[in-house]
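Input set for joint prediction.
Command: fold jointly, output tokens.
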Amino acid sequence: MKRVNVIQAKAFFRVIAIFVTFLLSANSAAVASPEQQAVVPHGSAVAAQAGVVAEAAKPEHGAEATEGEEKAGDVIMHHVRDNSTLTFDPFGEIHLPKIPPIAGIDISITKHVVMLWVASALLLLVFSLVGSKYKNMTARQAPKGIANAMEALVEFIRTDVAKANIGVGYEKYINYLLTVFFFILFCNLLGLVPYAATATSNISVTLTLATITFLITQVAALKAHGIKGYLAHLTGGTHPALWIIMVPIEFIGLFTKPVALSIRLFANMTAGHIMILSLIFISFILKSVVVAIVMSVPFSIFIDLLELFVAFLQAFIFTMLSSLFIGLASAHEGHDEHDAAVASH
Amino acid sequence: MLTSGTILLAGSLLSPNPGLIFWTALTFVIVLLILKKIAWGPILNALEEREKGIQSSIDRAHQAKDEAEAILRKNRELLAKADAEADKIIREGKDYADKFRADLSEKAQAEAKKMIAMAKDEIEQEKRRALDVLRNEVADLAVRGAEKIIRNTLDAEMQKKIVDSMLQDFATKRN
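tokens >
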């Protein structure tokens, strides 16, 4: 129900946006008046909002079509990229404070940092609730409500992702996998909330998470095979004459996995947002109400719903691949045994 | 739209921001540590406990089923044994009854034969006695008749001799 409300709210703002375009582009009062009448029944507040935005946008009205196009691209990029302001159109904006750089690194708080914190706060809120329910529950009781909903996801990650891919000793990594799944999921879902942004559509965030997976994978590989086995794996088990080719390839192969992980998540989350904004801006660029009604609104609602699915899917894929890499790194010996068993048959 | 492409290619989207990396790592690690303590620990413990509980329940159910099957098997065996016992008793009873009946009828037949034999003996004796009596009577009658005849005729002595010889004849013929 909540998700539906979110989508409805977002769609509602889109409708307002379309009416704003119409107000901007309308030259004749005859066409404008029926639309305005249509706006009024929605509530005077909506009409007032539309009016405010219209006033704000008026100075740029005189711009040429090409400049408008440029502006659309800028708006999209402004929305997708990280910056140091939280925009709450048409209520105003909050400028985030700048922190002086420490050791040459600018660690000032940006939009995506705030979104990370909001997602983390929500995550902690939900799971402190769920955790406290579990603390007060005996083994004979069945979980109810939010605890039950979260248990389904936790149990899925535990058995179908961690246990299935890592196998024996998955308990060491389950905390990380559960956290990374819910962290990404909450960040992704937060991106669908109006005025919020998707922290996971920033390459820095995804790269950090992928790097943590990479470090865990390497530690798991070192633990499972020792330094000797780890270095032997880099040679790919080939003849020493081929090492000069194999070692660089295997070495690069180590890093492609986390890079692919981070690019996948970042690109998926960014693409959805760019799609939605582009669909909306088509009606702005073409300055057509018909395009807005026939194309922009239905398609952006569709992409929005798709984004909801992708939010879950990408969180799952990131967790799945992380556990798969950990499983591959740590369970290589079992694989060799399996090969030996196959050969002996 | 072209500019957005150039912005993307220029690397503002693809260039990592060290500050954000720092904040992400920090936030993630803190969230991980807090969640591990407040959520994953209790939830995973509860899940494991429940898993164990379910496993033990299944084990118990299997055990109970095995026990029930053993009891059922035992009961069936007992029932079969009881059936066999009952069959045996009935068969023995029948045999005994048959034997008893045969004995009884044999005895009865023997008794009957004995009684018939006795009756035949008695009849024979009675017949003989009756014949003796009859013979005496007939002799008397004949004597008396002869007396009368002889008295009326000549010599009684002569007549008696003739009658006696005749009676002798009679008796031999009869026997």
